[in-house]
Amino acid sequence: MPYKKKIGLFTMPLGTNYGGIIQLVALQGFLTQNGYETVIIDRKYPVSVFKRLVKHFIEKNGIFDLKDIAYQKEIASEINGFKNKHFKAITRPLYTNTKLTKEVQEQNFDVIVVGSDQVWRIDYMHGIWKNAFLDFVKNTSTKKISYAASFGKEKWEFDEFSNEITAFLREFDAVSVREDSGVKICEEYLQLSTAQHVLDPTLLMGADFYYQISQTSANSKKNEIFAYILDVDAHAENIIKEAETSLQKTAYVIDDPKRINRHKKIKGYKKPGVEEWLKGFMEADFVVTDSFHGTIFSIIFNKPFITLANKKRGMTRFWSLLEKLELENRLVYRDRDFDRKLFFQKIDYTTVNNKIEVWRDFSKSFLINAIEN
Question: What domains can be seen in the chain, in order of their start residue?
Answer without folding.
Answer: 6-205+357-372 (3.40.50.2000), 217-356 (3.40.50.2000)
